[in-house]
Amino acid sequence: MKRPVLVTVIGIVMIVVGLMQVGVGILLVSQRNDATVLADANVTTSELTSVAIGLLVLGALSVLLAFWLLNGSRVARALIGLLELGQIAGGIYILVKLDSSHQASGIGQIIGGLIVLYFLVGTEKAKAYFAH
After folding, report:
1. What span, in angstroms and rounded, lies between the C-alpha atoms of 20 and 126?
2. pTM for the full predicted model
3. Do 107 and 99 touch, CB atoms closer than 8 A?
4. What integer pLDDT is reported at residue 58 of this predicted model?
5. What burial class does residue 36 get, using C-beta atoms within 10 Å of its C-beta: 0-12 exposed, 13-18 middle, 19+ buried?
């Protein structure tokens, strides 16, 4: 069975974004003791380190899942679906709990998660309808 083009696009985007997350995580780890960076971000060394480790883990996981997805793994598709549900929940949290300056980020997370979920698990008939 031929892999849908949109699944390929999702896999490639996940690889690129995952590599960017790893890069930012490495950058943050290297800057975790820089007083200027800590003061500008208004965070402690441990908070910055936690964010950096989170980015490294999520980036590596994204790349791994993307390669599994591109190889046709249904398990990867299900795990990516769960991650997208988490992204939607995070977007809702941002909308409800944070100030209005973060609302665009929350809306973007929700929309992005819904689009990826749709193309991962949507029916072929629905996909064909929206492709034209």
Report:
1. 32
2. 0.71
3. no
4. 84
5. exposed
Summary count for the chain: helices (H), strands (E): 6, 0
pLDDT tens sequence across 23-82: 988 998 998 888 888 888 778 888 888 888 888 888 898 899 889 988 888 888 888 888
Q: H or E segment at 51?
A: helix 45-70
Which has more confidence, 62 or 106? 62
Distance of CA 76 to the CA centre of its chain: 14
DSSP collapsed to 3 states, 59-84? HHHHHHHHHHHHCCCHHHHHHHHHHH
